[in-house]
Design brief:
Blueprint (H helix, E strand, L loop, with lengths): L2 H11 L9 E6 L5 E6 L7 E5 L4 E9 L8 H12 L6 E5 L2 E8 L5 H22 L5
Antiparallel strand pairs: 1-2, 2-3, 3-4, 4-6, 5-6
Length: 137
Amino acid sequence: MNIHNIAGHLNDLGDRSQTGLQFDCYPIDGEIDVLQVNIVNREELPIFVSVTDNQILCISYLWGEDEVKPDTRLSMLETMLELNIPMPLSSFAKVDDKYVVYGALSVQSSMLEVEQELSVLSDNCLEVIDELVDYLK
């Protein structure tokens, strides 16, 4: 399993996706190869996929620390903790000064499982933004 296999599979799906979503994928070469996965009509929230020896990591950036209303930050963090468990297949984290939602799969996962993870992660991002918009500037 590698990002090129995932990209080929998702790009070839077209409108035959089990999730009803269409994917547009772009490999990004670097020290660690990353796949940028755009979901058609949700391009503003790309998902970045990397593959290691034992996991497939899927991450989407939500907003930066500078976009959070300072007087609501602690309340936002508490809300994020409360949302973490009922949010299927995804968790919150912070990478540098950016808040993210991420999910991980085994490298033994099927392409259908990868597709489902990306779909759920994208749906969760939309729900999180709706739920937490009041904490943002």
